[in-house]
Amino acid sequence: MATKNKVIVTGFEPFGEHTVNSSWVAVQELERLGLGEEIDLHVCEVPVEYQAVQNLLPSMWKEHQPQLVVHVGVSGLAKKVTLEQCGHNKGYKRLDNCNFCPASSCCMENGPDCISSVLDMETVCKRVRESGIDVAVTVSKDAGRYLCDYTYYTSLYLGQGRSAFIHVPPLGKPYSSQDLGRALQAIVQEMMKLPELKNTEEGPEHNEHCNHTH
């Protein structure tokens, strides 16, 4: 019997004004919907703490050895579900839920400034739109220099680019938890169809550097 593809999808705990974090609500909705028979879905709630991310992510990648890790976060500025293409190493000056931020303001000492996902988010976005889903989807190259961006960069670094980040709006602005869950399902299913994921299993280390201007 063929082994299932393992996918981990994470959301974040509440922080600041987000007393209910729509990212974790959406991920729980995705867990209820599932990703189909061929995909073994695991979900996890991530603390909004830099040090917790540094502890959690290496064990997540090592123990589960997933084909893909998708992190979901809330953005108070987002009106659409937003696919982030890359994560950034520097510029982390906002305090987390423990009133901590890295002294160096960066994720990885001597790491590249920016790492891009192996997944082409423009392709994913286009295919999700063509599927007729009634949720607006867009692409971004700036995940915001807080725990979202920090988590994404760390995961891209650990997974040689086999990671994705999705920003969702707060609940009801304008989408319900059901809307967001269905959007996540459609997006992750499209990601799993991409040839880039098939090619990375035996391939060289990725860590592709971005070439866009910051």
Automatic annotation (TrEMBL):
Active-site residues from the entry: C148
Catalysed reactions, as listed in the record: Release of an N-terminal pyroglutamyl group from a polypeptide, the second amino acid generally not being Pro
Cellular component GO terms held in the UniProt record: cytosol
Pfam name, any one: Peptidase_C15
Record CDD domains: Peptidase_C15 (cd00501)
Superkingdom per UniProt: Eukaryota
Subunit and interaction comment: Monomer.
Descriptive protein name: Pyroglutamyl-peptidase I
Organism: Sphaeramia orbicularis
Gene behind the chain: pgpep1
